[in-house]
Amino acid sequence: MDGEMQELAAAVWAREVAKSSEERQEVSHVNYKTIDDIGEKGQCQGAVVSKKKLCGKTSKEEKTKIASLDNGYVRRRTNTRTRRRLKHVVDELRLRKTDISNAAEKVNKVVDAILQSGKQSKGSLFEKIKKISSGSYYERVKILKPNEFDIMLEISQTSSKSIVMTNLDKNDPYYTLSFKERKPSAMCKYLNLEGNISASEIVKEFRHLIEQIIGKPGMDDVYLHAKNSRSPAETLTIKNEPQDISVDLVIALKIVNEWPEETNSGMNIDDWLGMKVKQEYKKSHFYMVPKQAVTRNKTMNADIWRISFSNIEKKIITNHGSEKNCCGKRASKKNSCCRKQCLKLLKYLLELLNINGEQRKMKQFCSYHAKTALLHFCVKHPKDEDWKFKDLEFHFDKYVDFFLDCLRRYMLCNFFIPAHNLFSEEFVDKSSCDYLYEEIRYQKTNNYPIFYE
Q: pTM for the whole thing?
């Protein structure tokens, strides 16, 4: 009888495979399990078919179970339960409003003090410094507790259009910056012998600006960390209960030039957000942040800048729907999508694997990898109807599959500069990609047990 069941299963599966791809997709969206789940004894998710039942003495309920075999699929009960659990995980990742307001109040107090100090330096490069509202907190994809903030501080020059950008390598986002016309007086002190704008000198001046206000009345609970030469950020710790707040401050030089040639084949949002939106974004400014370049496993000099499109990323993440009513104020819960929820879940998965796994291998990965993968995956699946929140589990699995494929191929292209591979060996070694691939595949296969431990 076991052989008969296997033959029946094989015949049913052959029929199902012959169905159109559209029909199979419709079935997959309701999370059914294929006939491959029949066990060694012919059991299919608990539906045991005995000789007696197959010999004509079958109840109505049992006939329904057998009929499910004829359809080639049986409903997988654990899928429904897991889907609910994933939604529960998303709920747990939401930041409480009280926590947000308390943390934001303390962070804003410190940042405002730094900005005010800069504005008092008449004729200084920091006289018109201002905060940029970008990053996960402002994109509303921050997870767990608001204890980490990444804040960019914009400095701009009226003559920024005269800045010349020289790309070090077409496969990397690193540039030197110089002036083709008269140099602004506030910038002269930051030029090196080659006439390039020295990122290291600007960062040094900015650090001095922060040091001047640390310890002043109202700032005695703020501490400045030692400078990390490989990071563009100045890191502060603000004393707070129940957990201290870490703030990374990054200087961002505003550039209003045309986007560099390296971006021509990037940001392929035509079928997702539309050509009009793309053209609008391409006319927008972008930023340069101080960053020591690492090319071919060699650290370059400290006068290098890395291009940043964080302002555009925020616009895309916050206005991510192909239709205007997607997740907007007027959108019903029925029409809302799960793009942001999927991003939060993958960020959370990476964070948990970093805590519980081999940190030496995990330290090479960050939430920006998850964001970049989401942007590419949204381009592949541009329609809002492909992201219904009610199918969160299904869409998250597909998103994870895409990320796994990037790890398997050691290839995750920068969304704006496709020639720049974020998983290149210059940035992430292959053994770390292999390690993360196996860890995530195990989690996906077992319905992400790490979320519930």
A: 0.77
